[in-house]
Design goal:
The protein is an all-alpha fold. Helix content is about 75%, strand content about 0%. The chain is built from 6 helices and no strands. The longest helix has about 30 residues, at about 20-50.
């Protein structure tokens, strides 16, 4: 029983640390940049080339957008981390720490797109809400991960 009392549990994480929220926000913004490049690029490509109709084939386009968003985000984060560690380790950290966050981010962005446009389309009205949803959705998870692994104030 004493082992359980001495173990840090998820319930003991404080959600009031401004420093950790700032760090989580900074990390989330970098992830959002990487995801947005691949996501928006893919949606825009199909929108202007009309290879696939953005309304009729929205799930195919959005699936490709998610995959490309994940790839570009992992590449960007690996590059950023490679300035602090060897490339192989940077790649491992980029995938290990961020994959759930990136998937949540991509899903949120694309759900907003479908709700607002009815398909996989970029319009001036949808870009900002997509970015906001993409930022807010993974932010609590990113905060939690920083606190759980002792990467921010306690």
């Amino acid at each position: 029983m004493s082992t359980l009392n001495n173990t840090k549990t998820d319930q003991n994480i404080s959600w009031r640390c401004k420093h950790t929220w700032r760090t989580a926000s900074y990390n989330t913004l970098w992830c959002l940049l990487g995801c947005s490049i691949g996501d928006f690029g893919t949606i825009y490509f199909f929108q202007v080339t009309e290879y696939l109709n953005p309304i009729d084939h929205k799930w195919i386009i959005l699936s490709l957008a998610i995959m490309n968003g994940l790839i570009t985000s992992i590449i960007l984060e690996t590059y950023i981390l490679s300035r602090q560690m060897i490339l192989k380790e940077a790649f491992r950290v980029a995938i290990g720490m961020s994959l759930i966050s990136m998937i949540a981010m991509e899903a949120a962005m694309n759900i907003v797109d479908v709700i607002m446009t009815g398909g996989a389309m970029l319009t001036p009205e949808v870009v900002l809400p997509m970015l906001i949803a993409g930022f807010i959705t993974p932010l609590p998870y990113n905060y939690y991960r920083l606190k759980k692994y002792g990467k921010a104030c306690h």
